[in-house]
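user:
I keep going back and forth on a fold encoding question. Separate attempts, laid side by side, tell us more than any discussion would. Would you put together a sequence-and-structure record for a protein of your own picking? Write it directly below this note and I will take it from there.

assistant:
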Amino acid sequence: MITIRPGSQIHQLLLLLSAGGEIPSTTFQLLGNGRSVAALAHKLESVQDFRLENGSWAFRAKLLQVNGKKELRTIRLFKAALPVLDVLHPAALDYYMEAFCGHRLPGNPQHILRNHRVAEALAICLAAGVEIRPYALPVLQKEEIRLAVPNTPCFYIARDIKKAAGDASNKTAFTRIAGALFCRRKVYAVYNSRGAVMKWSGLGEVKALGNLMEIARMNAGRETVDAALLFGADADTALETIMESDRSGRTELRFDRIYKMIHFVPLNHDGVRLLKLLVLPGWNEKLLSALFEPEQRSYNRGAMEYDAVVGGRKILSHLDGDIARLIRFREALDYRAEPADVLCYPWQTEFLRSYLRGIAGLRELDMDTVEDAVSG
C-alpha cells in the first residue's frame, strides 16, 4: 500500500498533474532522486492501493497513464483515478476538470510540448518552495486595485493570467510565456526554453508583458514588470534564445529589451538553489554588501554595468544568473577594454569562459558561501 503524505514523491507528482495536466519525465530530476521518482511513476501505471497518512482514506486504482514517444512522451492521470485529487485540496478536482476540458487533453504536439514547458516551470518552482497550486491561490482579476496575491512566493500559470486578462488578451499574447512568479517585492515573467532555442514572438511578448503588468498592478500593487526568469537545460541555449530574438531587426522587440533583467535558471538542482535565492527579498543587495566594502561598490553609477572595483578591476556579479546584464557588460568591454572580472558559481564557469573569450577573468564562489552570506 502506498501512503500519500505531504512532501512525498507521489504527493509532488499529484500536485504537478493537478496544475499542469501532464508532465514529461524530465520533471523527475527536480523532485529528488530522478531514478526513484521514475521507478515510482512506473509503479503507478498499474493498479495500487493508496491511503492517507492518518488512515482516514483508502483508494485502489491505476494512477498514471503514459502516452507518446521520445519528446512527445507524456504522463497523465488515469481517468478512474481523478477522485484522488480531493486529497490535495477541496477545489483541486474542480480546477482540473475546468482547466483540462473534463480530462480531455489535446494530443497534438504543439499542446503537449507547451504543457511540458509549463510542467517543468511548475516542478522547479515546487522544488524551490514556491506555491504552485492554482486552486489554492486567490483568483486574479482586473476589476479593482487590491492586494490579492500572497506575500509568499507563488507561481501563476499563463492560462490563469490570460483568463484574468479577459478580452485584453488575444490568442497570440501568451504563446511563449509559461506564467508569472510573484514575490514580495518582485514579479517575474517566466519562460522555459527547455533544451532547444525558443522561437521568439516579439509583438506577442510585448502584449503578454502589457497584460501581465496590468494584472500585477491590480493584484499585487506592482507598477512595473522588468524581469524574467528563463528556465532551460543550459546557458548556451538561453543565450541563443536571446540572440534569436534579434532576428526581427527591431531592437525594441529583443528579449533583453522587453525585459531589462533575464535570469537564467537551469532545470536541475543548481537551478533550484538559485531560484530559492531569487525569491528572497533583498538577497542580492545583502550579498554585495557582504562581499564588498561600501567604497568599492558602484551602486549602479556610470555608463558601464558593474558592481564593484577591486584592485583597479571592475567586478560584475553573475551570481543572480542575469544574462541580459552579462550581455551589456561584455558589449561595454568590447567597446572599451578595461581590466574586469566576473563573479560566478563553479557551474557557470564553462559557459562564461566560452562567452567572454578572455576579455574578463572569472572569480568562483560556491553556492554554500552565497547561501550562508544571505541567511546570516
Notes: The two ends are 43 Å apart (CA to CA). The chain has a mean pLDDT of 92. The chain has three domains: 1-108, 137-280, 283-375. The longest strand covers residues 187-192.
